[in-house]
Amino acid sequence: MKTDTHTPEHIFRAQQRLLVPLFQRPYVWNKELQWEPMWRDLKRVLSRYMAQPDAEHQPHFLGAVVVQQVQSPIGEIQQRTIIDGQQRLTTLQLMFDAIHAQLESVGAKRPAGRIKKLIENDEDSCNKPEDKFKVWPTNKDRPAFNEVLAAPFPVDYENLEHSKSKMALAHRFFSESAREWLLENGEDEAQQRAEVLDLCCRELLQIVVIDLAVNENAQEIFETLNARGAVLTAADLIKNFVFQRLTEEGGSSLAESFYKEHWFKFETSFWVETISVGREKFQRSSLFLFHWIVSKTAADLIEREVFSRFKEYTFDSGQSMSEIVSELSESADIYQEKIIQSGDSL
User: Fold this and answer.
1) Residues paired with residue 66 on neighbouring β-strands, in sequence order
2) How far is the C-alpha of 73 from the C-alpha of 278, rounded, in Å?
3) What is the Cα–Cα distance from 28 to 101, expressed in whole angstroms?
């Protein structure tokens, strides 16, 4: 395991793909909690540089990510799996793509060209169409991500097929914010501000990267990073664990088929709805998993113990993960049917 601090120039300039595994939750960042704060942070960096362009500026820290190297065949582009930090890396790609388009729109060709190298791999490095993307989202997010990054400028956001997706909304927010900043003092200064925007994006943002070797235990590190706080629900953690195990059992093809047949349902509106239980609120999928593991183990649990007890059950049951997931999926269908029939909020 190697840990180091890197700028976006260092992370994204390399000819490589950062893959979001299908078992990761979809893109969930939003304007109020993440996009606006990230843009405000960048604006502070821009203002500081504009005020003292000749001074030495310390990069602004954006957080940490964990990636793991993937054994790639000779001739294939280098790949890494994003173990933690996919929301941050995906947002940076959406922001850089939006900025790239606005740089082009004011005629700042060289800054736009430099930013583009952080978004797409060189054509001669790509064997498949999707190889051009530096970051490749999880299955559910790929159509929206592809559409908004491929849309011609100016992007007609209202008529995008996935116009209401968080991918499109994020891209629109950063596009409008970048244009406003570039033209803040009129078109005469746009070229100068474009150079500053390009430089600050590439060199004055900073991310801690934990880079795991192929054989290191990514699941253990993922759990450790998310053991404190409530950023991930029980359903998120269980999903990550389940699909790591399915991949070990039968490779990515088994994991893909089980995701489509058995797990995709948990990302639909019924299952992601927030339910109140007394003074507490839970995502319905997490509440179901709580009930399911209690029924299997006859154990008294509190919500924060669901994930650890689920893991214990999978090891103690003697069943394969594919058998457990099939059974879990069947129970979920019955659970949903009963709730819909009864009109019960739970």
Assistant:
1) 84, 210
2) 53
3) 24
* Residues with Cβ within 8 Å of residue 214, at least 6 apart in sequence: 68, 69, 70, 71
pTM check: above 0.85: no
Average pLDDT by consecutive 10-residue portion of the chain (346 residues)?
88 92 85 91 93 89 89 80 92 98 96 96 87 92 95 95 97 98 95 97 93 80 57 74 84 88 90 82 87 85 76 87 94 92 66
Per-residue confidence (pLDDT) for residue 216, from 0 to 100:
81
The structure tokens 């746009």 sit at 190
Each residue of 238-283: pLDDT tens digit?
887 888 788 878 888 888 899 999 999 988 999 988 888 777 778 8
Please list, in sequence order, all residues whose beta carbon lies within 8 angstroms of the beta carbon of residue 248, skipping any fewer than 6 positions away: none
